[in-house]
From TrEMBL, chain B:
<keyword id="KW-1133">Transmembrane helix</keyword>
<dbReference type="Pfam" id="PF10510">
    <property type="entry name" value="PIG-S"/>
</dbReference>
<keyword id="KW-0812">Transmembrane</keyword>
<keyword id="KW-0472">Membrane</keyword>
<comment type="similarity">
    <text>Belongs to the PIGS family.</text>
</comment>
<keyword id="KW-0325">Glycoprotein</keyword>
<dbReference type="GO" id="GO:0006506">
    <property type="term" value="P:GPI anchor biosynthetic process"/>
</dbReference>
<comment type="pathway">
    <text>Glycolipid biosynthesis; glycosylphosphatidylinositol-anchor biosynthesis.</text>
</comment>
<dbReference type="GO" id="GO:0016255">
    <property type="term" value="P:attachment of GPI anchor to protein"/>
</dbReference>
<dbReference type="GO" id="GO:0042765">
    <property type="term" value="C:GPI-anchor transamidase complex"/>
</dbReference>
<keyword id="KW-0256">Endoplasmic reticulum</keyword>
<dbReference type="InterPro" id="IPR019540">
    <property type="entry name" value="PtdIno-glycan_biosynth_class_S"/>
</dbReference>
<keyword id="KW-0337">GPI-anchor biosynthesis</keyword>
<protein>
    <submittedName>
        <fullName>GPI transamidase component PIG-S</fullName>
    </submittedName>
</protein>
Length: 505, 422
């Protein structure tokens, strides 16, 4: 009986009897960027060992049916669609892992069996526009090209006739929540389990750069490459700026970025890992501390550079032993506290901007601090009497502790002269100094203040002319006037005129 | 007499008196006779056997075969024979109510029975999707051998129906897809119940996950198999009078069907999760195929007591049932074409300066010619050619009506043009 029970349990534990033909791997890569931001890249990869080209009947499990039917019906060999908002600032952030142009980008390789590629391209863009709720149906011959040299196929290819390639970009396309939701629906676990629980729209679109992409291509099934599998990769890259949202420190955690932590693994995933880039950055010689302690560390050469990654494997049972959720946190351990930023944004008509920075200036160097601003229009009663003079921005203040060349002795305040005792000095090795910059005069756009006067004048004139004319026409009456013989003065005048020889009145 | 009885019943009925046959049972007789007749589409052959014959079992006076023939016992006089043949034609061929049901979209409400608007509209093709919904993949790992089940059980039926339309079948598995309704816990049976009036609310949230068929224009029939979560097991559907439905499934007209598959709780409560479930495809496919027949309107009404139907085996569909479907679809196609062309004519009346392109005009002419030939073929009883002609008519009329150049907004009325100039 016990042996039978043990055998039964063994059969159950051996896993499903049927060999699965598809597999899901999910991965999250967190890399701190040199300027202080954090880039998070999600990748979900579904590999399906099936032939989508032939066969009238297809049975889908992890591969989404909408994309599978599309690929089979329209004869698509490779499909790459990317929706991006923002621009990757290579100068400040370094090289991007995956970059896409702003807006929507779609490039597709068709199978050689497709006879009318343009018709298939038009139908494909319309269908994708419906699936992803993006206005890709504006793709037509006016914004489609056939590149001859670049955009070679990324998957298996049997010869590349570039007439089977189509490429289109819509730079005006805006990415928002309604594009993210159908993208999440294509994942087998949806957004209910696994890494996809972190994808909440209200945090993802509050970022400096957001890019989501779908890549479908055929790959080799194994090393001998005798059979073809189909691979679907869904990637999402987002860059968070922790400075403006936080307390000015460069520490971050999963909860601060996504307002969620990882609680569950997706039962359908064969692999589910989080990688954190802990390579030391030479410039600042800072040490990184990652909590919780990673189970293993992985070294890889990425984009020509050797990098070290801390690995968290969500499928290993030891990870969720201590706490039911995983919140990866990164702290910077610096030899000295050297950078503190406090920024309080302005509220209109209530308080001004306040920016305080504590920085360490290296010797013999120039440090430039730049702030971008926009000019706005005020309400017309808020302008001063001389608006064209400009508006003043108050001086900036620089307070510093400068090391002094010769040491000072601690002296009694009452005994020393007044000019040495204004700023107290804690020790004799440095002295305190406060400097002010020049005030800034900014020319803001001013409206034309004479316009109300002009409008009133014109309106009144028009009203007066019209009303006056009408009133005149309606109320003017004509009388016939009898010429009168005239009074005494008139007769006297006539007599004088007769003497002069002028005709009478 | 007999000739008038035959002509009263309908079209294409031939009454034959064969020589005395030796085979003992009705199915074998039917199969043997099938080789003798020319069973063209829409025809019906009735064999009248003597009253004392042992070909038909005791108490049965009419035997309906699965091809287009039937055996009727002659007895009790000509009036009984006439009644039996009339009942037979009402079962095996069309009736006034079945034709009215085909035209149900155009007939005012009061004149129809409540079942009238349930059948699928006639279309050139249908897509059938089987979906397995697993809301709790942590507790259940569900496997179904859908490919084998489709090839073995569904494909023969669809092959038989291929005359009517093009069919395409696919399947998918959806995880974390929940029903929109929370079931009630019933203490007496210690199970969860879904009442009949909450069933319409089940479909909407699920439909968002099913996805639309992006690559084709045919209507989709969805058949869902739902494996309830461990916390809501077992789950039963309650009828209107409170009894659990025996098949634990329901269907929605013109949409598809849903079946709930309960997983037995494991014997020992410490069994390791997830439980592995292998779906019994025979039970599932029985229900889905029955729902498919209901959706197409191939259901069997109550037969009189003396009738016996031959069992259909794997094909699932008798030839005469296919004929009934074709009659209904032909009539519906002709009605659709007339409605479409009438709307087009009304549009032309309303907008005097619309421009009709040459190819649109030729499509309209072709549609009219096809409809006329379809009606002529129907009058003579040639069902196959009537159906083909009606399909061509529908294609041509849709192509003419939905041409982009006929867009109403492209044409301004004349008074608006004068308004601009003024």
């Amino acid at each position: 009986m016990l042996a039978a029970a043990a055998l039964l349990l063994l059969l159950l534990a051996a896993g499903p009897g049927r060999a699965r033909r598809d597999a899901l791997r999910e991965e999250l890569l967190l890399s701190p960027l040199p300027a202080g931001e954090v880039a998070a890249t999600f990748q979900f990869r579904t590999r399906w060992d099936a032939d989508l080209q032939r066969g009238a009947v297809s049975h889908y499990r992890l591969f989404p049916k909408a994309l599978g039917r599309l690929v089979a019906a329209l004869g698509v060999r490779e499909l790459h669609l990317a929706l991006t908002q923002g621009f990757w600032r290579t100068q400040a952030w370094g090289q991007p892992p995956l970059q896409a142009p702003a807006g929507a980008e779609l490039w597709v390789w068709f199978q050689p069996t497709v006879t009318n590629v343009d018709k298939a391209w038009k139908e494909l863009s319309n269908v994708l526009s419906g699936i992803f709720c993006a206005s890709l149906n504006f793709i037509d011959s006016t914004n489609t090209v056939t590149p001859t040299a670049s955009f070679k196929p990324l998957g298996l290819a049997n010869g590349t006739d570039h007439h089977l390639l189509r490429y289109a970009v819509l730079p005006r396309e805006v990415v928002c929540t309604e594009n993210l939701t159908p993208w999440k629906k294509l994942l087998p676990c949806g957004s209910k389990a696994g890494l996809a629980v972190l994808l909440k729209a209200e945090r993802l679109f509050h970022s400096s750069y957001h890019s989501q992409a779908v890549h479908i291509r055929p790959v080799c099934r194994d090393a001998s490459c005798l059979a073809v599998s189909w691979e679907l990769r869904q990637t999402l890259t987002v860059v968070f700026d922790t400075f403006s949202s936080g307390q000015g420190k460069k520490d971050w955690s999963l909860f601060k970025m996504f307002s969620r932590t990882l609680t569950d693994t997706c039962p359908l995933a064969s692999q589910s890992k989080v990688y954190v880039d802990i390579s030391p950055k030479n410039k600042e010689k800072e040490l990184l501390e990652v909590t919780p302690t990673p189970a293993s560390v992985h070294e890889a050469i990425v984009q020509g550079d050797k990098r070290t990654y801390a690995v968290y494997d969500l499928l290993s049972p030891s990870l969720f032993n201590t706490s039911r959720s995983l919140n990866v946190q990164l702290k910077w351990k610096r030899p000295q506290d050297s950078c503190y930023i406090h920024y309080q944004p302005a509220q209109d008509r209530r308080r001004p901007h306040l920016l305080e920075m504590l920085i360490q200036l290296p010797a013999n160097s120039v440090t430039k601090i730049t702030i971008q601003f926009e000019r706005a229009l005020l309400k017309w009663t808020e302008y001063p009497p001389d608006p064209n003079h400009g508006f003043y921005v108050s001086s900036s203040v620089l307070s510093a502790l400068v090391p002094s060349i010769s040491a000072m002795k601690n002296m009694d305040v009452e005994q020393s002269p007044l000019f040495t005792s204004l700023f107290p000095s804690s020790d004799g090795s440095s002295y305190f100094v406060r400097l002010y910059t020049e005030p800034l005069l900014v020319n803001l756009p001013t409206p034309d203040f004479s316009m109300p006067y002009n409008v009133i004048c014109l309106t009144c004139t028009v009203v007066a002319v019209c009303y006056g004319s009408f009133y005149n026409l309606l109320t003017r009456t004509f009388h016939v006037e009898e010429p009168s013989r005239g009074g005494l003065a008139k007769r006297l005048a006539n007599v004088i005129r007769k003497f002069r020889g002028v005709p009478p009145l | 007499d007999l000739a008038s009885a035959a002509s009263q019943g309908g079209m294409g009925i031939g009454v034959k008196f064969p020589a005395l046959l030796a085979p003992p049972s009705s199915p074998e007789a039917d199969a043997a006779l099938h080789l003798l007749q020319d069973a063209s589409l829409g025809s019906l052959t009735v064999y009248v056997v003597p009253e004392t014959s042992s070909l038909l079992p005791q108490g049965i006076s009419v035997y309906v075969g699965k091809h287009r023939s039937a055996l009727v016992r002659a007895g009790g006089g000509l009036a009984t024979l006439r009644t039996r043949i009339r009942q037979l034609t009402q079962v095996m061929s069309f009736t006034a109510s079945s034709i009215a049901a085909a035209l149900s979209d155009r007939v005012p409400d009061g004149q129809l029975s409540p079942d009238a608007r349930r059948h699928l509209k006639s279309s050139l093709g249908y897509e059938i999707t089987f979906s397995l919904l697993n809301p709790d993949p942590k507790s259940h790992t569900v496997d179904w051998d859908i490919e084998d089940a489709v090839n073995r059980y569904v494909q023969p039926v669809l092959d038989k129906l291929s005359l009517v339309a093009n069919f395409s079948v696919d399947s998918q598995i959806l995880y974390y897809a929940v029903l929109g309704v929370t079931p009630r816990f019933d203490k007496e049976s210690s199970s969860f119940l879904l009442s009949a009036h909450s069933l319409p609310h089940v479909i909407n949230p699920v439909e968002a996950r099913l996805g639309s068929s992006a690559a084709s224009l045919y209507p989709v029939l969805n058949f869902l198999l739902y494996v309830p979560e461990r916390s809501h097991s077992p789950l039963y559907i309650q009828d209107k009078d409170g009894t659990p439905v025996s098949t634990n499934a329901f269907h929605s007209p013109r949409w598809g069907g849903i079946m709930i598959y309960n997983v037995e709780a494991p014997a020992s409560p410490q069994a390791s999760l997830p439980l592995h479930v292998d779906v019994d495809m025979v039970r599932v496919m029985e229900v889905f195929l029955a729902q498919l027949r209901l959706l197409f309107g191939l259901s069997r009404e109550e037969l009189p007591a003396e009738f016996l139907l031959e069992s259909l085996g794997n094909e699932g569909l008798a030839d005469w049932e296919l004929d009934r479907l074709l009659w209904a679809h032909t009539v519906e196609n002709i009605a659709t074409v007339s409605t479409t062309l009438t709307s087009l004519a009304q549009l032309l009346d309303k907008i005097g300066n619309i421009v009709i392109k040459d190819d649109v005009a030729s499509e309209v002419y072709r549609a009219v010619a096809s409809v006329q030939s379809a009606m002529a073929e129907l009058a003579t009883g040639h069902l196959h050619s009537a159906f083909q002609a009606s399909k061509e008519a529908v294609t041509s009329s849709e192509r003419a009506f939905f041409d982009p150049s006929l867009l109403h907004l492209l044409y301004f009325p004349d008074d608006q043009k004068f308004a601009i100039y003024i």
